[in-house]
């Protein structure tokens, strides 16, 4: 009888054979009796990106306690790495235990109280997302809206700030759904003049395009681990300057989230000046090991070199795409995001079919648009470890192959 074959006689199967001897009524799932399968893929989409072996190895180190002194040392290193990557001296600099969304929510939940006015620049999905987060916690949300790929002039921003008098203005530096890298200069000064905090999302741009938190008067800045930083998804650096701390630590109400309350997180990360760091939650120890290693790579490479390389490789990719007859979605060269390049869907092709073809035949991830840019763009991300001309060549070959072999459906 098949079940008596030795191969199958492991403990869970024996348990299933005789239910009467077992107290469990839900059997062990058959899928979990098979080994984990995670194929090797070229992650050339907007993230996550492939993780270098050195960072994977760091994440695979034996676990230590989240409150051990060695762990505090590692968290202090991470803090220094984030200060470098953000170009800030803010002492209130930590990593969230969670993805980029955790940092978005932490920023909004702590800086804003219900009923306060928030102004959000929406030119892709990330503004939409922050507006929704702020609405959910009871803020009075005002949106400045442009089509994906559009950007806001400083004059437009100042007019909207004057009109809505927000306590917080949100802008995405690297709009990954549209492939836009938004100009940053002067906006922090406008916010300061109007007594409003300036919150910036650099999840898709940190390490790939210049950002200077202190020099550009950014009050709250966050990023994610899985893009140009090349760590696994699940941690998200964030920093608050003095102005932001003044606002968030003098609230009348408690933030809606206990997990994301900066009063607790600042103590957990040793930023509040108190002698003891208390238990708040169990941080992702392996994720922090990996994040520390990715920040170490950035420190060794140097920010300026990392920015230069992303610019060089994205420029090379863009020229190759134009040579294939493809149209870049962002016409202004200087506004193109160096980590995620967007192309207009080629006339007559079904973008989904092309992406499936590329995945099936080249084991390569590229993606379509996201939120308002769905059906408008295809996205190619070459960030951090993946930011190499050889990878750009592979992506171009895969696209050329798809253009040749996917049937034209229209036009
Ligand atoms: C610009 C931007 N902001 C925020 C996020 C959300 O990050 P996460 O998916 O890690 O929560 C992303 C993810 O793609 C992003 O590109």
TrEMBL record:
The keyword Plastid does not apply. Signal peptide: none annotated. Keywords: Aminotransferase, Pyridoxal phosphate, Transferase. Its EC number is 2.6.1.44, 2.6.1.51. The modification N6-(pyridoxal phosphate)lysine is found at residue 227. Belongs to the class-V pyridoxal-phosphate-dependent aminotransferase family. Homodimer. This is Alanine--glyoxylate aminotransferase. It comes from Gouania willdenowi (Blunt-snouted clingfish).
């Amino acid at each position: 009888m098949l079940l008596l074959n030795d191969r199958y006689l492991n403990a869970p199967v024996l348990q299933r054979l005789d239910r009467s001897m077992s107290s469990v009524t839900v059997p062990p799932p058959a899928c979990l009796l098979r080994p984990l399968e995670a194929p090797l893929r070229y992650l050339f989409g907007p993230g996550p990106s492939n993780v270098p072996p050195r960072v994977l190895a760091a994440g695979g180190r034996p676990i230590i306690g989240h409150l051990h002194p060695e762990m505090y040392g590692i968290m202090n290193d991470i803090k220094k790495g984030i200060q470098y990557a953000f170009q800030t001296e803010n002492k209130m600099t930590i990593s969230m235990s969670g993805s980029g969304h955790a940092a978005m929510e932490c920023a909004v939940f702590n800086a804003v109280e219900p009923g306060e006015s928030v102004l959000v620049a929406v030119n892709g999905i990330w503004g939409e997302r922050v507006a929704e987060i702020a609405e959910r916690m009871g803020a009075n949300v005002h949106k400045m809206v442009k089509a994906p790929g559009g950007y806001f002039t400083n004059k437009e921003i100042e007019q909207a700030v004057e009109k809505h008098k927000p306590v917080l203005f949100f802008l995405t530096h690297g709009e990954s759904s549209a492939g836009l890298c938004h100009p940053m200069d002067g906006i922090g000064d406008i916010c300061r003049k109007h007594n409003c905090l300036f919150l910036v999302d650099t999840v898709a741009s940190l390490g790939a395009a210049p950002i200077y938190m202190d020099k550009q008067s950014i009050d709250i800045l966050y990023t994610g681990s899985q893009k140009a930083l090349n760590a696994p998804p699940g941690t998200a650096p964030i920093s608050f300057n003095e102005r932001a701390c003044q606002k968030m630590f003098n609230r009348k109400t408690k933030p809606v989230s206990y997990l994301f309350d900066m009063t607790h997180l600042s103590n957990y990360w040793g930023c509040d000046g108190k002698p003891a760091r208390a238990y708040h939650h169990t941080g992702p120890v392996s994720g922090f090991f990996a994040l520390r290693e990715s920040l170490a790579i950035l420190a060794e490479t140097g920010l300026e070199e990392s920015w230069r390389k992303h610019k060089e490789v994205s420029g090379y990719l863009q020229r190759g795409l134009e040579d294939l007859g493809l149209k870049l979605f962002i016409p202004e060269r200087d506004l193109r995001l160096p980590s995620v390049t967007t192309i207009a869907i080629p006339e007559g092709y079904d973008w989904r079919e092309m992406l499936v073809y590329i995945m099936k035949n080249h084991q390569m991830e590229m993606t379509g648009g996201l939120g308002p840019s769905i059906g408008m763009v295809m996205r190619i991300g070459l960030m951090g470890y993946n930011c190499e001309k050889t990878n750009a060549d592979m992506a171009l070959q895969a696209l050329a192959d798809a253009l040749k072999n996917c049937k034209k459906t229209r036009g």
